[in-house]
What does this fold into?
Amino acid sequence: MNKTVNPKELKLDDDYGPLYAAQKKVYPQSVSGTFRRIKWALMAFCLGVYYFLPFVRWNRGLGAPSQAVLIDLPNSRFYFFFIELWPQEVYYFTGLLIVAAIALFLMNSIGGRIWCGYLCPQTVWTDLFYAVERLIEGDRRERMKKDKSADPMKLERVSEIVLKHSIWLLIAWWTGGAWVLYFNDAPTLVTELVTFQAPMIAYIWIGILTCTTYVLAGFMREQVCTYMCPWPRIQAALTDEWALNVTYRYDRGEKRTSVKKAAELRALGQPVGDCVDCYQCVAVCPTGIDIRNGPQLECIQCGLCIDACDTVMTKIGRPTRLIGYDNDINIERRQAGKAPIYRIVRARTIVYSALIAVVGGIMVYTLATRSLLDVNVLHDRNPIAVKLSDGSIRNAYTVRLLNKSGYDRVIAIDIDGPVNATVHVVGVDSVTPDRPMIVIPRDATSELRLLVTAPADNNPEKSIPVRFHVTDIGLGVAASATDNFVSP
Amino acid sequence: MTDHSEVDTVTGRSTTGHEWDGIKELNTPLPRWWVITFYLTIIWAIGYWIVYPAWPLISSNTTGWFGYSSRADVAVELASLEKIRGDKMVALGKAPLADIEKDPALLALARAKGKTVFGDNCAPCHGSGASGSKGYPNLNDDDWLWGGSLDQIMQTIQYGVRSGHSKTHEGQMLAFGKDGVLKADEIVTVANYVRSLAGLPTGQGFDKAKGEKLFADNCVSCHGEGGKGNQEMGAPNLTDKIWLYGSDEAALIETITNGRSGVMPAWEGRLDPATIKAMAVYVHSLGGGK
It folds into this structure.
């Protein structure tokens, strides 16, 4: 950049600003092939799960919701088929997020941006919106022509535009609608929604998600991936030389020339590439890039350029996969006349898989051994201890009992700690002396005020650990918690 | 104002006409959308002045077309809160006092309500945790001047202690020294005798027989035989470990010399019956209730 600039030749708006690149609209061409089929299948699967999962039923018995996947905010419960989580167990979500993150790392180290290209909601919905656009306005060339048309106000064109946006909005609305169904009983909420009886917040959320879907998938599209999403930046740190990425195999492609010329040169035994510069890979690219320029930040690695190139290669009778999942190591090996090697199993993928197995294993284990009875104890702070008329010491505790099962329990509370201590629960008559028995309702938290009294002479220490044992008398299930017994 | 603006030859853009040492300032006006938004906010503000209270007047303010008032909003919200709580508080008011602690929902309500009202009304004397201080009883322990059953606690809250209410608790510790009933050396003897009742060490040269006689003549009428106290008269038990005004000799001498008559206001009329009930359950549930 040592060029001296004559200010008189300087065109301000072109060379020195504005500081952003204006969007160049992308018109991806339709394509068919292996990866397109994979993408259609995954799109159908992802959207099918998203739209219909709320309607799947799961019998949890009387009084419990029968929706398989439900985030019950008013009652602070999360249901997932046979799993029911309480707010106290939110750490399971931490585990889930860790597994999800490492799974992304693993995908990346094996096959590049598999998530971005096939599974990301932004990709799936944008793909769907493109499909609608193509159906109504035609393929790449027609759409480009129509957009550039000097006379856009013909009735036919206007009706096309209106139809496209209507279908987009309908999809967006359904997307928002499906979202709220995860937070309430789906069939009930659908009835309420159509009869305008649903709570305002449901309509607000549908509105918000309708807007985001419509704008992100209809207008912002690849710009979300290029400018808004942090993931492409993070990926650069997660990839390595063995990861398979969508790659233009330049060892086979250069020099590029026409089909005819290439045949002539090949006949003469001169070096020539398979790439015929047809630009089909660029035409089908949903982010509008040229894969032949090498790996790029914008590339979401959807594999559609592979399909496009394969179609052309088949037509001109050259081997397919001029563009394919590959890496530079193999390109260099082929150039040197060696066979390519693929290392899916290597230190990085083993470590990621092991981490997933460990975190997943811990989660499965804790879920399988999850206790349906739990107790939390909170010592009174003010006053921390009370001296009674006979000189003995009394401490008060708030005991919170969590009965996560679907039936009421009868529990007994015993304590272990101060010598000769007695226990009393406010409002409860002890049937057995000093062993309060309490009925705690199903699927609920009960709060009790518990008093522990012990003679000062037997307990001279300032603070004595005290263990609270809670036992389900009928089933023998137990839980315990520890706190301290304090002298004034 | 003269317009000095001219077209800059290098960039082809107009200048502001300002020039310093040959350097001219290019005219870069604010974007049109910004200016329009700015004017719109001014128009919006005028509309706001018309429909909402805005301008201070001498003794009030403009009320605005909508007649909005945040105070009226608060009143409406408080009324709706009362309505929500109303049914529960009615249920609490109707429930027999003895049954409230047996019902987990009523107990939780009474304790929550009681705690709030206690903080607003009782904490200044009894402390926020109801643990009291010198002269103000600790309500967490099991030592009660006027009785620790639910009914007795509620009665004390309702009518107070020496509060002037017609049904208040009466009875006071006389000023034996100030009123000349006992001489100074007799007061020391009684103080030491009281300490001996509680099992506390007594001073040198303490004549127990004399103390016992003085106690029988002057104190037993209220504090009872052996100093066990009398809740009818609010006379504390002198044999236990809890002392409202202190148990050392000096404190006892002061008490006997000047007497004691702490006051607790009557809450009947200040708090509604259901709230007083909630308070009684709350105090009872602190742990000391009988």
